[in-house]
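Suppose a classmate hands you a notebook page containing two proteins, each written out with its sequence and a corresponding row of structure tokens. How would you begin to make sense of it? This section walks through that situation. The first entry is reproduced here exactly as it would appear on such a page.
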Amino acid sequence: MDIGDPRNISKTQSPESSKTSAASGLPGSGTPKLEIAKTSKGTPTPPAASDRPKESLNDLLIEFGCAEAAPSPKKMSSEERSRRWAALLVDRVGMESAPPELARNQFIDWLTHLAEGVLGNMPALPGVFQTTRFYNEIKTIESPLRFLKTVSENLRTGSLTFYEAVDCVGRNFGWEEERLGKWKQGLENFAGFKRWLPAFMHAHEYLTAAFPMNNERLDKLRALLLQALDEPHRLLEPGARIDFDTKFLEFKKNYMDSYFLLHEDALHVMGGFQRDEVKVDPVALRNLELLSSLPHADQSFLNRVKLLARWIQRNQCNLPVDQILELYPRCYCNFNPTVRQHPSSSATQINTLLQEGLEYFRRVLRRCGNWILLEVKAQAADDESLKQINTLLGDGPLIPLKPSSTRLLKKIITRNSGEFLSEIRKARQ
């Protein structure tokens, strides 16, 4: 038998009691009617409503381990006992000495708050909470709530007096204040769980959709959070929820930072120029462009660089990834940090092509170095051009070239095109 099952609250009336109910105008079958028993000799009876049918209270005692013979405290009068339990239930100072009507209204308000605020509007639980253990934990809280809802309805319709309603509740808990206290604590935890559930659903979705980051500390924290979902009933406890939230916020912050940096590194390759985070060497790119403009120059290196650069530009992501990560662990461009991204690797390819192309041109020009230097001196070139050409023909790092230097080289190569073409053929062998 389940706690709080309405089938265990109302008792099927005999034909005689049905007639009595009809004559007295008591509610029909819409609201389960709570009926008060005659008490044993020597046990104080609650104030009875006039014209109330006398039935057994056994059918009102739902499965809380209470029996018909469970003795009520005898040190208090019926009224004192009812007022004390009403005060324990409502947890309001001064209720024991309040006027009966005020105590009744406060008790009804409390019952209404439970029925509408705690029991009602329960959102659908995610699949992770649909376990037998979690259901059993919730059942011990919800079943008494449903019983109290029925008590409230009967109290509102006048089927029960205030004292009789409290007496029903007291007997339902076996008149054990400790049991009542544990149930109220569970009720408070359940109410907190309901308020926390939307935040959990966001965390659950975030954790399941997040990418592994190949970061030992971050991936271990994610694994711990997902492991906590294997025992969802523990999240009914406030301490467990606080611990879960603390770990999730730590995970989310570190995940967002890591994902953002990897996203920027992979998909903002060209944009790095504006943030002093250069991904493609701009000096090498400009030098290759100038050398590729020389007569009889091989254009294949520059053409491949341009193709890759256009591909990178087409795959740039300008979405506000930091704002997206607040709500969802993946950018809408579908960037996956666990897979090597083409834009980032293409930047490396571009730099490799730039160095290969520059080395090719320097190798060809070195073969012609002697007569190039003679021509430069014969034309009385300026010091800056002479310095750049000497660097170009040397083995050290290449400095930025100027258009004036390449214009001078064009004149020299044009006058010596035969020798230059011969050296180009040898360099290709």
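The notebook's second entry, a different protein, reads as follows.
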Amino acid sequence: MKLCLLTVPHTGTKFTERMFWDLGYHAYAMVDDPKDDKALFGGHTVHPDQVELAKRLIEDRGFPLIVTLRHPYLVEKSWIGRNKSVPNMINAFYVLGDLIKEYDPYVLPVDSPMREHCLELMREGLNLNLRTNWKPTNISQSTYELSPDEVTPSPEVQQMVTDLYPILVPYYDLKADA
């Protein structure tokens, strides 16, 4: 089965890819068209061309969509630590929110108390024996030991969390955030 993975960078992309690699899946860019049945097409929501290609794979070919989540406050801290543009991150989250509303994908919130339940839903829905120890990968700017209440988000990210509340609240305790 061929799959699409679209993520906001630093929300568990490599971590999620690793679960599929462990099952023999191979990573492909959204521009590839392999004959490989174990193809995992990966892209980031910061790249509009990758999002459009993924939409075509989902709509025209019926590829299941998988998205990852991390609490936006922690993602912002990670982006700042890497000198990345927070406005680009915010836009990527809005794009992700639209994808979730439009396609009802498998959501893997890597830092949420709901992650085991979400992984189980993905296992069952995809009929794949996905396993993980939840150990983060690619953690040069590690924010994985932090909780959202240990960071001070920018007003812009606070507003984004408020705007995306319906998308985020199934996975995170946002009572104090929104």
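A careful reader of the second entry would note: The beta strands are 3-7, 26-29, 39-44, 65-69, 106-109.
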